[in-house]
Amino acid sequence: MTSPTINRTDLINLVITSLRDVLEQSGRPLPATIEENTLLFGKGALLDSLALVTIVVDLEQRLEEEHGLTLTLADDRAMSQRNSPFRSVGALVDYLEQLIHEEQSRD
Amino acid sequence: MTEQEVVLITGTSRGIGRFLVEHFLQRGALVEGCARSPVDWELPGYTHHQVDISNEGQVKAMLSAIQRRHGRLDIAINNAGIAAMNHALLTPGETASRILNINVLGSFLVCREAAKLMRRRNYGRIVNFSTIAVPLRLEGEALYAAAKSAVEMLTRILAREFAPFGITVNAIGPTPIETDLIRSVPREKLQHIIDTLAIRRFGTFADIAHVIDFFVHPASNYITGQVIYLGGGG
Question: Given 3.30.9.10, 3.40.50.720, 3.30.980.10, 2.60.120.260, which CATH number is that of B6-232?
């Protein structure tokens, strides 16, 4: 489903690296482990709204610079989904896979 | 990463933008500029981009190019703008749309993409352009003044949204300056505007540069969301 140059493991690592950077920059505590079911946004999750904005921008920039992929993560569709694509690491990776697939289908 | 300060100025083909290019080059900055057309001049330290700032893809591509070349952006000056002075009853929808697109959408897109780059170093200075036509509520400039009112509100709210990233956002409201933008405005109308100012003269490029220098100074890190009008006309 993902690009031959970026597989699911790459995307998980990308999200985790970005998450660590954003948490460090904002002085928030790093959890002992970050996994696919780690909650990102919502009750009891790692990010507040500003940190969520930062990680979305950070991921867009990493995808463009490291993989040549120009994606818009936070569009109206993403924001209006009942199950937010930003709720957990795994959900965000699923969403990135979907966006990359759509982008490649357009080419 | 480039060691020198990097400045983006929109609307550099002539007028205030062209002047600001030289102003920032003289203080040792690297200047990236854009206009819808190519420019027929070259200056050491200046890079030109042919960009329509109301085109999202083109604005994104320009900021990506700046990131690749310099790895930083310190200052963004949203000078590009268009005006069309006419009675509201004689203003076509297409003109209205163009004025809103360039002035409001264009300023927003440049602010957004500039801030994405600036946040990486947790530092940035954005200066937007309003106009004295906003506080003076000038007849014949309904669309232009409405668009610049929107730019002022963008400035105030973006100041809050970008503050956590070390970015300030301010605006300058110039009085008439002898540039192409006002060439088609009747002399008596210009004189009427000048007569309503506290200091009754045309503005100069240097007046604008002075306010911008204040806004972009590193020590101005507690000055954000402000609009300064020249000439005491606000």
Answer: 3.40.50.720
